[in-house]
Amino acid sequence: MKRFLPDRFTQLLIATVLLATLFPATGSFENVMHIASNVAISLLFFLHGAKLSREAALSGLKQPKLHLLTLASTFLLFPLLGLALKAAVPDLLTPQLWMGVLFVCTLSSTVQSSIGFTSIARGNVPAAICGATASNLLGILVTPLLVTPLLVTLLLHRHHEGSGLSQVLSILLQLLLPFVLGNLLRPWIGGWINRHKVVVNVVDRGGILLSVYAAFSAAVAQGIWHLFPPTQLALLVLVNAILLGAVLLITTYGARALKMPRGDEIVLVFCGSKKSLASGIPIASVLFAGSGAAVVLLPIMLFHQMQLMLCAVLARRYAEQQERAEQAAGAGAAVAAGR
């Protein structure tokens, strides 16, 4: 049963949302939290840049087909499925929640969980490292600068707060500039970051929790929980499940149709189906300023836990299949040797 329970970070996210609901930041404290959240986001992307190995990303040139398919699943298949689902049942969710769902579809893949599940499933771990790293590198650029503004403006016919120019400047200053600086300084600070992973993870996750608290505090003041009844949240879970299930099926059977090696199939399935909460929350905090950020965060927070639970089951199933195949091969070899 433990595998179906929320992971520790998801529990912290839920606790943060409850804290913001019961004790939202108001008045001058709200301004302080807004500034602290912006600083935390910049620091978070600085650390992302410092942690990113350019060598791992460039090593994908050795397996271009696999990594192109993974990136296509992340940045093309997901958005197309999201748009198709919205076109099919536009009134299933509110426009704000559909915005959040489409935002999830534009995010990059995760790094740690993609690699971890690939390892559990006994897949091609070096390729998973490369694919997840390349996805995160491209996601820093693709999600905020191209895909999300295009979907929100042209397809949802909504304009979020601020002009396009101000949003671009915010992205450049808060996300891209710290990320590039961190990556440029990696030769000097990379060793320190590797030696102090616990401290870096605390800062990393603390910044995300701070952003969530600030976003939901603003949303609570606008009455967010009165806007979305439980039925809407249940339908949101259904939409997330359809998207995740469809991508897992397409990547699994697509890899088999292309006769990809088993290890590469596992990489495509796990790297191509993930969406990064760690990148999504700070990007949403910049793109959807104010109370709108909290609404956009609901789908990715739910999707995060759903992908962890389902992929944990799939990873163990892959591992068991491999163990049975090895046992059968060993038994066959023993029979052959005894003849």
UniProtKB/TrEMBL annotation:
<feature type="transmembrane region" description="Helical">
    <location>
        <begin position="164"/>
        <end position="185"/>
    </location>
</feature>
<dbReference type="InterPro" id="IPR038770">
    <property type="entry name" value="Na+/solute_symporter_sf"/>
</dbReference>
<feature type="transmembrane region" description="Helical">
    <location>
        <begin position="66"/>
        <end position="85"/>
    </location>
</feature>
<feature type="transmembrane region" description="Helical">
    <location>
        <begin position="276"/>
        <end position="300"/>
    </location>
</feature>
<keyword id="KW-0812">Transmembrane</keyword>
<feature type="transmembrane region" description="Helical">
    <location>
        <begin position="97"/>
        <end position="117"/>
    </location>
</feature>
<keyword id="KW-1133">Transmembrane helix</keyword>
<keyword id="KW-0472">Membrane</keyword>
<feature type="transmembrane region" description="Helical">
    <location>
        <begin position="12"/>
        <end position="29"/>
    </location>
</feature>
<dbReference type="InterPro" id="IPR016833">
    <property type="entry name" value="Put_Na-Bile_cotransptr"/>
</dbReference>
<feature type="transmembrane region" description="Helical">
    <location>
        <begin position="35"/>
        <end position="54"/>
    </location>
</feature>
<protein>
    <recommendedName>
        <fullName>Bile acid:sodium symporter</fullName>
    </recommendedName>
</protein>
<dbReference type="GO" id="GO:0005886">
    <property type="term" value="C:plasma membrane"/>
</dbReference>
<feature type="transmembrane region" description="Helical">
    <location>
        <begin position="206"/>
        <end position="228"/>
    </location>
</feature>
<dbReference type="Pfam" id="PF13593">
    <property type="entry name" value="SBF_like"/>
</dbReference>
<feature type="transmembrane region" description="Helical">
    <location>
        <begin position="234"/>
        <end position="255"/>
    </location>
</feature>
<feature type="transmembrane region" description="Helical">
    <location>
        <begin position="129"/>
        <end position="152"/>
    </location>
</feature>
